[in-house]
Amino acid sequence: MFSTQSIDECSDGDAAAGQPGEADARTSGTAAASRVAPRVVTTGRKKVAERHPVDSGEIYGTGERVELEAGGPSGVRVTRHLDAVDAAPANVAFLDALAFSVVPPDEKSYTWVLEQMQQFLAIETIEYRRGLFGFRYSARIGDGVGVVAWGGESQRGRVFFSLMGQGCSMVKDWPALQSWLEQHRASIKRADVAYDDYEGRLVSIAWAVEQYQNDGFNAGGRKPRAECFGDWLDGEDSTKGRTVGIGSRASGKYARCYEKGKQLGDPASSWTRIEVEWRAQDRHIPYDILTRPGQYLAGAYPCLVVLNELQSTIKTVAKAAQIAYDRAVENAKLHCGKIVNLMLAVVGGDYAEVVKQLIRPGIPTRIEPYSYHVRQDPMMLDHQLNGALS
Length: 390
Hints:
eleven-stranded mixed sheet; four-stranded mixed sheet; alpha+beta; single chain
């Protein structure tokens, strides 16, 4: 059972921001409802019909299938749909973030959701905080596992639950979680699907730039915009890492390609990650993205169909934890190496006595995001014993 840590004073009023993934992405100059045929499905930049003009900007910019029906404040209700490539392996990618909202039964609230989620992952601690995403109250789960938010008249009893990368890596049974979401009619608000290339043989920053320049990220709409972040001035000699962002987060579909190993602190790492983030902004995110992430990643952009290396979240956690561990050891050597050397001389070379005097409980902050897996298997940090992970 989870326990609570510090409790902050909760705000009395609802936050002004709306629920994540529910921001409007409506277009201007839309035809009146009476002129729009209901449930018209199209893709790319094609117009629905000349007599039903629809701005092709934000609606068609993602290249996703679009369903239009009469209704909504602007006269047209827009729903975008994710496409999957059935020929791609389902486990060629993995969930790196997941958020959903659900209405608990019988006027129950967030405690019911937390108890239910313990079927799928370990929830050890929660830390209460102020309101979040338009909900009156919220709490952080573990150290970077996720958040839960609830309360506020405008939310009509809904509870928001979000898992970040660490939380997703702790999920024990994705098919069972998918069934739970379907059973309780939860609404998926965000899903991030990722692919890791540890050696950078296929996926790299240079690959992402080339694919963008050759329309590999053009999914049938207009060419998405691109932006660069990080250590670009040093080019391929970058030690801190670079990122290419494709698309617009305002549209609810956004791709990132970045040097994951360098981001974690290994300046020589070739580990590169490509991930696609979907938010439910006028978009339906299907339940089976939990069990077919690779097929949805392949369907996101033409250039992603070629990805074929099967993914393992445990392998990813081990790689990340090893990099963090190595950096922590280097820092310890830099700051404490000399005193350890002196202590050995003082106690006549008694290593056990030096360790006894220096050891203290806990895990370094740098490794804390991987603490759940490290506690389960500390030997995952040993490179020699985990050669099979490479």
